[in-house]
Design goal:
Number of domains: 2
Largest sheet: 7 strands, mixed
CATH topology of the largest domain: FAD/NAD(P)-binding domain
Number of strands: 19
CATH superfamily of the largest domain: FAD/NAD(P)-binding domain
Structural class: alpha/beta
Order of helices and strands: EHEEEHEEEEEHEHEHEHEEEEEEEH
Oligomer: single chain
Strand content: 25-35%
Helix content: 10-25%
Length: 315
Amino acid sequence: MNTRTNERVRCLIIGSGPAGYTAAIYATRANLSPVLYEGMQPGGQLTSTTHVENFPGHPDPIMGVQLMDNLKQQASRLGADLRSGIATGADLSQSPYRVIINEEICMEADTLIIATGASAKYLGLPDEQKYAGSGVSACATCDGFFYRKKVVAVVGGGDTACEEAIYLASLASKVYMIVRKNKLRASMVMQDRVFHNPRIEILFEHNTVGLFGEQALEGARLLKRQGMPDEEEVSIAIDGFFLAIGHTPNSGIFREWLATDEAGYILTDPNSPRTGLPGVFAAGDVADSRYRQAITAAASGCKAAMEADRYLLSV
């Protein structure tokens, strides 16, 4: 990487979800003068949700956009340098670490906090965007409460889909599982729980081809045994459509330098945001394939900033 260095900072934060903004808050209070680049989706995944009811300190529901704006304002008020820009390259071969922003700005950092998050996988249907926030969701834990005593569908056949279906079945009156294959991929324990839940109906060999509704989601169009001689189009009436086909961690530019699991999640020390490189930390969903909650992301952002401070004091 021969790009000329534009600026050197003590603490560079990449990403602006709960992990990134919280890291900025704590890093600023530790006098690390952090610079944060907001990334492709300023505010992270929460900006695409509606009401958030499970973030501590908010007795009334708060819009995801408003919650993230509050965090941003808090970090800014404390003095964090928040900037627009996307990390497009990195060289972590030695310290200070180098990150390229917008393919032209080269930042050097004594400590680096990666909080780039993860992106939910979607089917790619135009209707998914049409009903985003009004029936389509990629987080049952976040949005399931709004479908109490209603009918919902979960797309997927793995452990995550089963977990989401079971969770939703505790709230909704009925849960469809839309499974592309003729069997589930989930563990036997999860399969057993799904099969024995009276509120869950599994639609094997079904593919979603469209969603419909006037102002909000009202149903889904499915193809049963798609591509087979007995292919059949069916419709189901639903109020909510939940994607549970996985997430993609936004770790691509760092994978050459950092260990990841098979899915691309950055591996860190147990109960710590420390990566295999001294002074480099991963916080939030980019390193969390299990919980993926705003509060756990915020907590890991706090840890990352505190670890960055301790690292700088030790060198």
